[in-house]
Design a protein that fits this description.
With 543 residues, this protein is α/β, with parallel strands linked by helices. The chain has 3 domains: 247 residues, FAD/NAD(P)-binding domain, CATH 3.50.50; 94 residues, 2-Layer Sandwich (D-Amino Acid Oxidase, Chain A, domain 2); 111 residues, Histone Acetyltransferase, Chain A. Helix 3 links the parallel strand 2 and strand 3. The radius of gyration is 24 Å and the shape is globular. 49% of the residues are buried. The structure holds flavin-adenine dinucleotide. Flavin-adenine dinucleotide binds next to helix 3, strand 3, strand 10, strand 18 and helix 8.
């Protein structure tokens, strides 16, 4: 179906709530796109000198590269993106490269300082290459990561990502999240057709034509307290895990099984450099990985929705120190004494399979979350961006929101291999690895550790799933089933007793109780029989 609406007519330029155009200064000029895109001609103002906090980021690393993000154009955008975190920035770059005029509104353009999004899996790195953003990992002192060392009791096992078939640069990376995000913002804001602005989006603007409600733009507040409205045929909400806007687009079912307590260890050596260290400790899971040449991140998983900060230093010192490798004790205690202990809730939220509000999309953590212990969030999100970019590429005009919305139904199917594999792995194995007094759960935890320690096919199968290099849900289910059989087999061999039989049966029931709800939340049909869903084959509208 061909769409011929004129987006400029439907979507007026960004205006503030008093009705004035938002851009009030600068030299407006009729701009020409350097790409071949049949847009209604709009007036563009290029290189408007607007002061931005992006410039004020002070790290020496960026002193030479940071530039003002100019408000590039004053006309209506094709796409509004809410949030310039990992996802918003990468999506902006992808769409702008394809010739869309993108208006990004970000609450805070200063370099973020968070304990999230510090490990990019090799599969995510490949997606970054597909998006042309791999250079954002340069000059930020990012560290190469080639696998995990898994610790349990006195034993440890080394697990490698299956990187043999790839060029040397393909590996995991770990880094300061803020540096990575800032590099992406900088690169994105150099594009002529990107308008990056600091402001907090407060509302999605909707048009109700009695049969269907369509999102037509956003209302946002700038730092000076002014309210503005911006309009576009498509609004993508990437406002992260604490999203305020997702409620109006889906039915979020957020679970918070635990929190991460984060510390930075300085000037110490990991027992195995280039590996993340995952310790299945007596009380919780502890993760250590390098985020720069001088700093190591330590994350301690504490079950529960809220973790009290008072008393945390004491808990870490008296209980946790003894659980981490001996050579890190001094650095760990120094980190506690420095006092910069951070806490983040670990949320999990299945994607709503068909959030169908024309004119809007959710992406990133606002749309879908999984337990972060496996470091898969950015990989899933970057993979989603590649799928979305491919779906939008052939569509010239985005202004028929209803057709576009129907076309994008296939997004929810095509994203499934990567998203379901990583989501299921993260949520199911988190439960398997978390501490429980139940004997069957203890057996399952031990069996999984031992299964991974078998090496060869057994560990490489899991590692290709963990790495995001083999996004294949069926393979995950087969490996999980094999782990359970292995666990039961060990209990029953050489001579099964009645007690062991009972534990074996409970082990199977625990494993099913863990994996089935996760698969159900992902959608059995979308996960395993995607090709049987009609929207899998949809032709784009308006070709
Ligand atoms: C403790 C923890 C550790 C994690 N570790 C990893 C890891 O190692 N590897 C990994 O891949 N994933 C990890 N994740 C998940 C990962 O952080 C997320 O998947 C990723 O950051 C999602 O990116 P995003 O852009 O959707 O959200 P964010 O990165 O949170 O970005 C959202 C952006 O939107 C802006 N914003 C919010 N509200 C508004 C508004 N109203 N108006 C305008 N702007 C707004 C925010 O300022 C922010 O810049 C971790 C998560 C947690 C909780």
């Amino acid at each position: 179906m061909s769409i011929r609406c004129c987006s400029a007519m439907l979507y007026p330029p960004s205006v503030n709530c008093s009705g004035k155009t938002a851009i009030t200064s600068g030299c407006h000029s009729a701009s020409k796109f350097s790409y071949n895109k049949p847009h209604t001609p709009l007036l563009f103002s290029t290189h408007l000198p607007i002061a931005s906090p992006l410039l004020k980021t002070t790290t020496a690393l960026r002193r030479n590269t940071t530039r003002l993000p100019p408000l590039r154009f004053s006309g209506a955008a094709d796409v509004i993106i809410v949030g310039a975190g990992v996802v918003g920035s990468a999506l902006t770059y992808a769409l702008a490269k394809d010739g869309r005029r993108v208006h990004v509104i970000e609450k805070d353009l200063r370099e973020p300082d968070r304990i999230v999004g510090e490990v990019l899996l090799p599969g995510g790195y490949l997606k970054l290459i597909e998006l042309g953003l791999e250079d954002c990992l340069e000059e930020i002192d990012a560290q190469r990561m080639i696998g995990y060392v898994l610790y349990k009791d006195e034993k440890k096992t080394k697990l490698h990502y299956p990187l043999e078939k790839f060029s040397y640069d393909v590996a995991g990376r770990s880094f300061h999240n803020g540096r990575f995000v800032q590099r992406m913002r900088e690169k994105t804001s150099t594009l002529e057709n990107v308008r990056m602005e600091q402001g907090t989006v407060t509302t999605l603007l909707k048009q109700d034509n009695k049969t269907v409600i369509t999102v037509i733009g956003v209302q946002y507040k700038t730092k000076d307290g002014q309210e503005h409205k911006a309009y576009a045929p498509l609004t993508v909400v990437c406002d992260g895990c604490f999203s305020n806007l997702r409620q109006s687009l889906c039915r979020p079912k957020v679970e918070v099984p635990s929190c991460f307590v984060g510390l930075v260890l300085e000037n110490c050596q990991l027992p195995f450099e280039n590996y993340a260290h995952i310790i299945l400790a007596d009380l919780s899971i502890i993760i250590l990985y390098r985020i720069s040449s001088t700093k190591v991140r330590c994350l301690v998983d504490i079950p529960g929705q809220k973790v009290p900060l008072p008393g945390m230093a004491n808990y870490l010192k008296t209980i946790v120190t003894s659980q981490i490798p001996y050579e890190l004790h001094d650095a760990f205690i120094s980190a506690i004494d420095r006092g910069n202990i951070r806490i983040m809730p670990n949320s999990s939220m299945p994607a709503d399979p068909y959030p169908t509000t024309p004119g809007a999309l959710l992406l990133g953590d606002a749309f879908n979350m999984r337990h972060p212990w496996a470091g898969g969030g950015m990989t899933v999100a970057l993979s989603d961006i590649v799928v979305l970019q491919d779906l939008l590429k052939p569509i010239r005009d985005l202004s028929d929101s209803t057709s576009l919305c129907r076309h994008l139904e296939s997004f929810y199917i095509l994203r499934k291999p990567m998203a379901s594999t990583i989501n299921t792995l993260a949520d199911a194995l988190y439960k398997v690895f978390s501490v429980s007094p139940d004997e069957a759960r203890k057996q399952l935890r031990q069996a999984t550790f031992d299964y991974l320690s078998l090496g060869r096919f057994f560990s490489s199968g899991y590692m290709s799933l963990f790495s995001g290099l083999n996004p294949f849900p069926l393979s995950l289910v087969l490996h999980f089933s094999a782990t359970v059989f292995y666990g039961v087999g060990r209990l029953l061999l050489p001579f099964p007793s009645f007690k062991r039989l009972r534990i074996g049966a409970r082990l199977v029931s625990c494993a099913l109780g863990i994996i089935l709800p996760v698969i159900k939340a992902e959608g059995v049909r979308q996960m395993f029989f995607a090709a049987s869903i009609p929207s899998f084959y949809k032709d784009p509208p308006g070709r």
